[in-house]
Amino acid sequence: MQIVMDAEALNVFLAREFPQVAGSYRVERVDPQSVTARLTVDEANLRPGGTVSGPSMFALADLVVYCAILSRIGPVALAVTTNASIDFMRKPEAGRDLIAECRLLKLGRVLAVAEAMIFSEGGAEPVARCSMTYSIPPKR
Amino acid sequence: MQIVMDAEALNVFLAREFPQVAGSYRVERVDPQSVTARLTVDEANLRPGGTVSGPSMFALADLVVYCAILSRIGPVALAVTTNASIDFMRKPEAGRDLIAECRLLKLGRVLAVAEAMIFSEGGAEPVARCSMTYSIPPKR
Amino acid sequence: MQIVMDAEALNVFLAREFPQVAGSYRVERVDPQSVTARLTVDEANLRPGGTVSGPSMFALADLVVYCAILSRIGPVALAVTTNASIDFMRKPEAGRDLIAECRLLKLGRVLAVAEAMIFSEGGAEPVARCSMTYSIPPKR
Amino acid sequence: MQIVMDAEALNVFLAREFPQVAGSYRVERVDPQSVTARLTVDEANLRPGGTVSGPSMFALADLVVYCAILSRIGPVALAVTTNASIDFMRKPEAGRDLIAECRLLKLGRVLAVAEAMIFSEGGAEPVARCSMTYSIPPKR
């Protein structure tokens, strides 16, 4: 399937529609098999012991899946998450950004399903995995 | 099972251990069947259309489950979420706080399982439901 | 919302449409808040140690959610599960049937969400919990 | 990590410990990156319209994850599923076996996490995906 928004177009879209998050989350790469995004980790994302908070990882997974869908269907702001399942498997490394890689598994007329794997930058093993379903609003 | 931390004790603990979130999230009630927490919704939690963001709802669910566990085992800061599954079912009502009610389903030696139902304050139908597993560190 | 199929109507429907399972699984009660179903446990459902297999519990959860939806919308055989999340929390008691109680959380035009709690008959604490999303085919 | 049970050893183990399922489910391949299993589809697995039932797919995912764990830790019959999340994405093709490919994401001392992708044999796109957590009993 064709890519209709690249990384730059997605970042411009995020900055305009989601100014609260666009400072910390950024799409790094869009290719036919996967979309990659980065969370620049700062104080607000940390928890005791220097680990990244679960909600920050959830937000990263949510964003990369959303962008993977938009990369194929264009800037449909109203696609919404209906289900997410996330496994937190390892403690992220202190002082590293998080990188999420998303693979779109299904892009239907009504529902899209994707999974995202989250890594500490440079790490070989995932710190978390997430699968998500998005509901896609009908075209007008 | 006995309650060892009440709402006030939990809020004091959150303010000390999680100062980043303690301003927005607050435990409202602890009773033998359930624990209730509130997210005071402000600009940072909102998305286009006035809805509350998914990650903010996830954070509320995570907090209420964490507090439900601590209410029974005491201030074990290092209990960590290992799995979460969340269904977003309805759009939260604009301008309302979110209320989460948590029920502990299992409190084992190693794992705890709970579910949380999230409502717009005053609303009859849940906007989201979440089930979570926490890993409880061994006692020293 | 109105109940359009009661327990008897659902069991007749299951016997006709799903003869492979109708011998073991049975709807026990349909009321406005919940639907209850039973798995009559026999050899085929057991695993080493006398426990009921995970897939048999999954099948029971799937059936009770399906019947909860049909109890409100009528005999739509083609409603399909799109997502399920299940927590296995305790070992079922040997020699007891399993009872599942289902609560419908959302019945939308396209998606329905429900949760089921599974107990060993007579047991106070759930052996498993499950949340499921069903996709409802458009009306012709 | 080392492989301690290969496909043949796993099939022998299944035949001895799980005679009810060993006729239909079979490990096909064990390699360092993944474990593959097959469900030979017959009447008992089918639903109206010729599709494979959800519980049969769940059982296949459960089996391939279980075998992926045993392939690394040896014949520990008492490892048990604690959580599963499954997305059913496409209707399996009629008259085809199902093939599940499992990747172990974490093998900890207490918990293992894996994901399985299920395909109709010869199909390019997954019909279902599943993530599972297993609890591993302490060594005696």
TrEMBL record, chains A, B, C, D:
Record keywords, A-Z: Hydrolase
Name this protein carries in UniProt: PaaI family thioesterase
Lineage: Bacteria, Pseudomonadati, Pseudomonadota, Alphaproteobacteria, Rhodobacterales
Organism: Paracoccus marinaquae
Record domain Thioesterase: where: 49-125
PANTHER family referenced in this protein's UniProt entry, alphabetically: ACYL-COENZYME A THIOESTERASE 13, THIOESTERASE SUPERFAMILY MEMBER-RELATED
Signal peptide positions (record): none
Record NCBIfam families: unchar_dom_1 (TIGR00369)
